[in-house]
Every structure is written in structure tokens, then in C-alpha cells.
Task: inverse folding
């Protein structure tokens, strides 16, 4: 009798606890939280040290510290801007203007606490994950004006650009804005990150003009070992960039990682073969640039396509971006110093359009069917994707041009000819990268 009573009391207690346990599990998914914590660290790893080393090895030795300094400074400054206002403009309700930009209710994370949730992960984690994207996007632009922009101008430009361009475009696509409502497919940043950064880099290169001696004096990378080291870090970190964008530890994240890797491999191979056929020898610079092209091109499609489509996307990226790079520098004579537009811009546009094809359920092995395929009609989706590309391209170009003119009027954009000849390491930071 006593044993029965004890048993009933225990069972009743457990039954009372079950609703509470079920509610807690629905609110906070520990597996998803752990994965996004890891992804956040991976994406930050892409900027520091990945992108920093990748870019620093590509410039001349007299400017190596300036590039490292720019990437490091942007990591700190963009973190503050995102905390103060960027996140609020990107991911909160903007009231009557909500289609275009978020509001001010989450300035300084005012509406966020330890218990705040974004889906089934803490909102603080979601905000931090998105912060790493807000960091790397302005850092990518550095490649367009490397070796000639004033440090003060770079800081002012990046702050204004982040608020005026990056946060609103993020809201358009991921924050409930008009492109997201239209059905634009951009899983991890083909428009938000790669097109915005690349167009800004191209406009900056055009406004500032070419480096002294561009097209006449050889300007080879000073340290390819450093560049390859950074490239390897980018490849690994990109798994957090794309896989983490699933915001869950599930099959979507696993597939995003798989297609990311396959596309990177395809980009490497295609670029290497193009260079081998055209120049007689494959280069290390070529293979790592092809990798970045493959990664950037798969980014918008990584949550919507399968592995066969990823291989096609990667191979296409290697070929298209290879010829785009030569066209920009050799035909148009534009000194996009580290090839931001032909790699990230052309790749971002190509990937954003190709997802409108391969996310269809109509293409069998090459479709997204069974891999998160989201569309039926290729024509209708391509129209949406094209609108997204044109809108983001045009807005970024116009806004970037205006911001550059404002910064030029305030502090001037470019160092003097003599300072450029001496190198930004000594001129701007009073240090040398190498003292042998």
C-alpha cells in the first residue's frame, strides 16, 4: 500500500514536470545553440585571421601592415556599429518603412535580454552571428582600395556605409523587407554580402583611381605563403558562414556544408585548368582565387541546391570569374587591387541567378528536389532573382558613390603620391612589416 502510494506520488510529480520540460525544449534547442555558437566563431575566424592574411599576402611588402590593420580595425569598429544601431536597422520592425529598413527599438540591444529568443536559439547569439557578417562585408571592400586609401577615410567610410548600405540591404533580404517578401533566395549572402561589398569596392576603385604604376610596373603578391594560409582559413571558416545560416543543427546545415565544399573544389579546379591552358602553368594564386570564387558563388544557393548542382556552380564560378578578372584589369584597366568585384561580385551575381535555376524541382539530379528545393517555375524565380541583383547593385553603387564624395570632402580619400611610393605601413602607422 505504501509502495503504491509512493509510486503514485512520484509518477504524479513526473507528470507535472513534463509540460515544463516540453516547453523548455521548444524554447531553447541546445544542439542548435551549440552549432550557431561554433559557426559564429568560424565566421569571425574568416576575417581575423583568414581574410587579413589572404589580403595581406597579396599586397606589396610596404603595405602589409596597413591591410592587417584595416581588417583588425574594422572588426572592432563594425562590432560597435552593429551593437549600437546596425542590428536594429537590419532586424527590427521599422513601422511604416518596414519594407525598406528596420526601426530603432533595439539600439544598443535595448530590447534584448539573456532570455530573449530568436526562434529556438538565444537572440544574443543570433545578433552575434549576424555581427560577424557585418564585420566581414566591409572588410572585403578593403581589397578594392588597398595600398592607397587614408586610414581615417577608411574608418569614416566604413561606418557610414555599414549604416546606409549594409543594414538596409540586410533588412530587405533577411529582416522582413521587400526582397524577402518577394521570395528572393539568398541563403547566406550572395546579395547581402558579396554583391554589396564587390560593388562598393568597384565604385571605390573608380572614384579613387588606379595605383601609381598600375599596368606599367609589376605589382605581384609579396608573400604567397601568407595568402595561402589565409585562404585555407577562409575555406574552413566558410562552413560556419553557409552551414550556420541554417540556424539549426540539421540536414539543411549538413547539406549547406557539403555543397559549399564541392563548389569550392570545383572553383579551384576550373580556375587552375583555365590558367594552365591559357598560360601554360597553373599558379598557386590562381587556385586559391578559384576557391574563393567557388565559395562566394555557392553562398546564396547553399541552402537550396544539391551536390550535383553545386559542382556545376563551382566549375562555372572558376571559369566565369577567371575571365572576369582579366577583363576588369586588362581590358577596362580598373585597379580593383585584390579582385573583389570579378571574384565576389561576379560570383555573387552568378550564384544568385543560378539558385533560381537549381532550386527548382524540375531538373532531376541537378535540382534541389530532396535537398531543400523551394521552387517549381524557373522563369518566375529567375525574375525575382534578377530584380534582387539589379536593386542591390544599383542602390549600393549610388549610395557608395555619395558616401565617398562626402568622406573626400571631410578628410580626403587618398594618400599623396609620395606617401603611396613610401608605403602605407610607415606613412600611416610608423611601422614596418619586415625588418630584416
Result:
Amino acid at each position: 500500500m505504501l509502495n503504491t502510494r509512493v509510486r503514485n506520488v512520484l509518477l504524479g510529480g513526473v507528470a507535472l514536470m513534463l509540460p515544463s520540460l516540453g516547453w523548455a525544449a521548444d524554447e531553447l534547442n541546445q544542439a542548435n545553440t551549440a552549432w550557431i555558437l561554433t559557426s559564429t566563431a568560424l565566421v569571425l575566424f574568416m576575417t581575423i585571421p583568414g581574410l587579413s592574411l589572404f589580403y595581406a599576402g597579396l599586397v606589396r611588402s610596404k603595405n602589409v601592415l596597413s591591410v592587417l590593420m584595416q581588417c583588425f580595425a574594422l572588426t572592432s569598429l563594425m562590432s560597435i556599429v552593429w551593437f549600437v544601431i546596425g542590428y536594429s536597422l537590419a532586424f527590427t520592425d521599422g513601422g511604416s518603412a518596414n519594407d525598406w529598413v528596420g526601426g530603432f527599438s533595439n539600439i544598443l540591444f535595448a530590447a534584448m535580454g539573456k532570455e530573449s529568443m530568436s526562434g529556438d536559439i538565444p537572440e544574443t547569439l543570433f545578433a552575434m552571428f549576424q555581427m560577424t557578417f557585418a564585420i566581414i562585408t566591409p572588410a572585403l571592400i578593403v581589397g578594392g582600395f588597398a595600398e592607397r586609401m587614408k586610414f581615417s577615410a577608411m574608418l569614416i567610410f566604413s561606418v557610414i556605409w555599414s549604416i546606409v548600405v549594409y543594414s538596409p540591404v540586410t533588412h530587405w533580404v533577411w529582416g522582413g523587407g521587400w526582397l524577402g517578401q518577394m521570395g528572393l533566395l539568398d541563403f547566406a549572402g550572395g546579395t547581402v554580402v558579396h554583391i554589396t561589398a564587390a560593388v562598393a569596392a568597384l565604385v571605390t576603385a573608380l572614384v579613387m583611381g588606379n595605383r601609381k604604376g598600375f599596368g606599367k610596373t609589376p605589382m605581384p603578391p609579396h608573400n604567397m605563403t601568407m595568402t595561402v594560409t589565409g585562404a585555407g582559413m577562409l575555406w574552413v571558416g566558410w562552413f560556419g558562414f553557409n552551414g550556420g545560416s541554417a540556424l539549426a543543427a540539421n540536414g539543411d546545415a549538413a547539406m549547406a556544408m557539403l555543397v559549399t565544399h564541392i563548389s569550392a573544389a570545383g572553383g579551384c579546379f576550373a580556375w587552375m585548368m583555365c590558367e594552365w591552358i591559357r598560360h601554360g602553368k597553373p599558379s598557386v594564386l590562381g587556385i586559391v582565387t578559384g576557391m574563393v570564387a567557388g565559395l562566394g558563388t555557392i553562398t546564396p544557393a547553399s541552402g537550396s541546391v544539391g551536390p550535383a548542382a553545386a559542382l556545376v556552380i563551382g566549375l562555372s564560378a572558376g571559369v566565369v570569374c577567371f575571365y572576369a578578372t582579366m577583363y576588369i584589369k586588362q581590358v577596362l584597366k580598373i585597379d580593383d587591387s585584390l579582385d573583389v568585384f570579378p571574384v565576389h561580385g561576379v560570383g555573387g551575381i552568378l550564384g544568385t541567378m543560378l539558385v533560381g535555376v537549381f532550386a527548382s524541382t524540375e531538373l532531376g539530379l541537378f535540382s534541389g528536389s530532396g535537398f531543400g528545393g523551394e521552387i517549381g517555375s524557373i522563369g518566375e524565380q529567375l525574375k525575382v532573382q534578377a530584380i534582387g541583383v539589379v536593386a542591390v547593385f544599383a542602390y549600393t553603387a549610388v549610395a557608395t558613390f555619395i558616401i565617398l564624395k562626402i568622406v573626400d570632402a571631410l578628410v580626403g580619400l587618398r594618400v599623396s603620391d609620395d606617401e603611396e611610393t613610401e608605403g602605407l605601413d610607415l606613412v600611416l602607422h610608423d611601422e614596418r612589416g619586415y625588418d630584416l
Notes: The beta strands are 117-118, 121-122. The radius of gyration is 23 Å. Residues 378-411 form the longest helix (34 residues).
